[in-house]
Structure formats: C-alpha cells, structure tokens
C-alpha cells in the first residue's frame, strides 16, 4: 500500500536521457492519480535521504542513481548486509538481491557475514510470487 513515488533524476543537466526518463515517469504517474508523485534531482534526493529518510516511500531512478542511492540508504540502515533489494523489469522479470552490492570478501570463511539482506530479499520474492504466508514466516523468524 504505497502512497508516494519519487522520480529521481538529473534532467536539468542530462537533458536527453534523464529527460526521457522523467517524461515516461510523468506519463505513468498520470495513469495513477491516487498515488502521489514527486520529481527530485538526485543531488537533493541524497541530502534529503540523509536528513529526512521518512519522506520517501518508493523511488524510481535510472540505474546509476539507483545504485548510488541504494548504497547510501544501506549505510543509513546499518550496512550492506541489512537491506534487501529488487530490480523489476517492464515485462515482469524480477531479480531479488541484497540492496547494496558490497560483497564483504574480507568476511569470507570467518562466520561473520550477515545474511539478513538475502533473507529479506527472499521474503520479497515470496510476496512477488503471491506466497505471503511464506514471506510472513520468514520475516517473523528474522525479527525474533
């Protein structure tokens, strides 16, 4: 039950690529008038994410900004091992993974890696597959 979508861009400088991205975002937002839509330049988004993360619900970004923002958000939440992530394609293809792609090779073999991000990503996958009871069970186990 998401209430707001923020389109993150740099269309003021990257007029062609980000301009097209923003145009498609606006067209799509017009089809869903009950969902609040806002546009925000990526620089301001990063600053606001640090100072007021609660202001955001769903962000849609071009790939580069999404990677940067995902890592920033992961740091705010406690690190790469905590935050789940998903990449959704326009044709229903979805890839579930940890939200920040820091692989922590220095932890390999030391029994220190945190699997929370992968487990939460699995819960997101279960919801995507319409298996909410499996997602609920997994999330409950993580929170205990």
Overview of this protein structure:
Keywords: Tricarboxylic acid cycle. Pfam families: Iso_dh (PF00180). One of its GO terms (molecular function) is isocitrate dehydrogenase (NAD+) activity. The two termini are 25 Å apart. The chain is globular. The chain has 144 residues and is α/β, with parallel strands linked by helices. Helix content is 44%, strand content 17%. It has a three-stranded parallel beta sheet with strand order 2-1-3. Strands 4-5 form a two-stranded antiparallel sheet. The chain folds into two domains: 1-77; 80-144, no CATH class. Helix 2 (42-51) packs parallel to helix 3 (63-77).
Order of helices and strands: EHEHEHEEHH
Span from first to last CA?
25 Å
Decide which structural class fits the backbone: alpha/beta
Strand content: 15-25%
Q: Could you give the count of β-strands?
A: 5
> What overall geometry do the principal axes of the alpha carbons give?
globular
Mean pLDDT: 91
Number of helices, counting only DSSP H or I runs of 4 residues or more: 5
**Roughly what percent helix?**
40-55%
| Count of folded domains | 2
Quaternary organisation of the protein chains: single chain
Give the spatial strand order of the biggest sheet: 2-1-3
Family: Belongs to the isocitrate and isopropylmalate dehydrogenases family.
GO biological process, one term: tricarboxylic acid cycle
Pfam families: Iso_dh
GO molecular function, one term: isocitrate dehydrogenase (NAD+) activity
């Amino acid at each position: 039950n998401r209430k707001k979508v923020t389109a993150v861009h740099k269309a003021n400088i990257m007029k062609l690529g980000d301009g097209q991205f923003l145009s498609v975002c606006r067209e799509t937002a017009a089809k869903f008038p009950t969902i609040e839509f806002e546009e925000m330049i990526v620089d301001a988004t990063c600053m606001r994410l640090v100072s007021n993360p609660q202001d955001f619900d769903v962000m849609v970004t071009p790939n580069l900004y999404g990677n940067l923002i995902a890592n920033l958000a992961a740091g705010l939440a406690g690190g790469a091992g905590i935050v789940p992530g998903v990449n959704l394609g326009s044709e229903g293809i979805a890839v579930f993974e940890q939200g920040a792609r820091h692989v922590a090779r220095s932890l390999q073999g030391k029994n220190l890696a945190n699997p929370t991000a992968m487990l939460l990503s699995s819960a997101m996958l279960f919801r995507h597959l319409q298996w909410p009871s499996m997602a609920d069970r997994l999330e409950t186990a993580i929170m205990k």
